[in-house]
Amino acid sequence: MTVSADALPAIVLQDVSVRLGGAVVLESLNLSVRRGEFLAIIGPSGGGKSTLLRVIGGLLRVQGGSVTVSTPPAFVFQDYRLLPWRNVRANVRLPADLHGLVPGSLNADEALLQVGMSGFARYYPAQLSGGMRARVALARALAQSSDVLLLDEPFAALDALVRERFNDELLHLHDKTGRTTVLVTHSIREAAYLADRVAVLREGRIVKVLDTGRRGRASAYTEGLEAELRALLGEGDSTRLQTEEPGRIRLGWLWPALSLLLGLALWQVAAMLINQKFLLPAPALVWSALTTNAGVLLPALALTARTALLGVLLGGAAGLLLGYPLGKLPWLERFLSPYLVASQSTPIVVLAPLLVSYLGYGTLSAVIVSALSALYPVLVSAIVGVREVDRGYLELFRSLRSTPIQRLWHLELPGALPILLGGLRLSFSLALIGAVVWEFTDPNQKGIGFQVAQAGVYYNKALQFAGIALLIFLGVAFYLLLTTLERRVLYGRRQR
């Protein structure tokens, strides 16, 4: 006799045992969940409810017994785990980005429509209220091509009224989609209201499974004083945005501008007091030297800028390629630590003559010196950034069955981006120093460093100061460029 697929259970656990840190969390546990059923799991804190859900979801291995699930489950975590650098639509689209849109599954817009979040697709998680984040997390689960939905106390952080409204909406979604649903909750009333059956978990065992007969749906929240209070308070509103107050004028640029003006004034006063233009030329003399020799200084500045940029690109790429495996493998970092420390401790001015003997003069040597100067900040930033990625997000990607390359591209690189951009700012400053050091060494590399050195030979302090001012301008310009890029890239993460 052939048994139809619909008649088979969606989830079967037989004699499952789990030990964590030497402690028994689940022991000889048996559980069967019918297709299309809504099962709630309740029990005291520390009783193994979330562990059981992770076993069903394939996030924890069992030490004994067997676990059978009809399709890889979709997971809604208690803290939602929305990626802060993705907007609402992109968060819901994450399963499709990893595995493509499976025929018959919901796309991001369809899933958002089901949870009432279509109008907020372009917002970022930090701009949303807790209830809205819960809706987005549920939409992401609905967008997965799974017939099994696992919910790990997704409403625990919501206020009572919003939680009640979510219970009604979740019930409606379950009736509409027919997905097998397993909910972990501490609320007895919530379990009775939502579930077809309630499993009681205590000390790592299912002590009883009760059939609600949907009786809780007929009485919960609707009788006596509780019903009267609920009517007075109305429905909870979970769609509240967290936005900045309008009309605020940003004056952050004012302090640096005042500082610059004060510095120029002090420079002018000092030049007047010393009254020796061969020691400290006045700002007007420096400006005159700059404008008079612009035809020489500006091409020299462009050459130095090109060398520094190529050095940042080469050193940054090398730092990222080296830093990622070192961040993932602490033993490898410890093994290579003597060489890393030695490379950082060796002044670049010492390495320049060695490169002359190995590679000779020219652009290639200049770029290598600049790249070596830029390497270490990106290397360290990559190591720290990879290790700072939230473990909760790693578990989310495991639940989505991502590959290592997908985790790198969609999680680890975007997650480490704030730290990487900070390292990149420092890298450009060091790359610029490396480029100038090489120009002091290579007479054929006639960049701005060479022009400053030449002006020093002829005791032309005004021209020297003009070259130094251009170097400072170049460094500040790239710092502002990277800061602007950082603000744009990290825009959604910083909304509060």
From TrEMBL:
It is found in: Cell membrane; Membrane. SMART domains: AAA. Pfam families: ABC_tran, BPD_transp_1. It is a multi-pass membrane protein; Peripheral membrane protein. Residues 297-482 form the ABC transmembrane type-1 domain. InterPro entries: AAA+_ATPase (IPR003593), ABC_transporter-like_ATP-bd (IPR003439), ABC_transporter-like_CS (IPR017871), ABC_transporter_ATP-bind (IPR050166), MetI-like (IPR000515), MetI-like_sf (IPR035906), P-loop_NTPase (IPR027417). The chain crosses the membrane at residues 253-273, 285-302, 308-327, 339-361, 408-438, 462-485. SUPFAM superfamilies: MetI-like, P-loop containing nucleoside triphosphate hydrolases. GO terms for biological process: transmembrane transport. GO terms for molecular function: ATP binding; ATP hydrolysis activity. Keywords: ATP-binding, Cell membrane, Membrane, Nucleotide-binding, Transmembrane, Transmembrane helix, Transport. It comes from the Bacteria. Residues 11-228 form the ABC transporter domain. GO terms for cellular component: plasma membrane. Belongs to the binding-protein-dependent transport system permease family. This is ABC transporter ATP-binding protein.
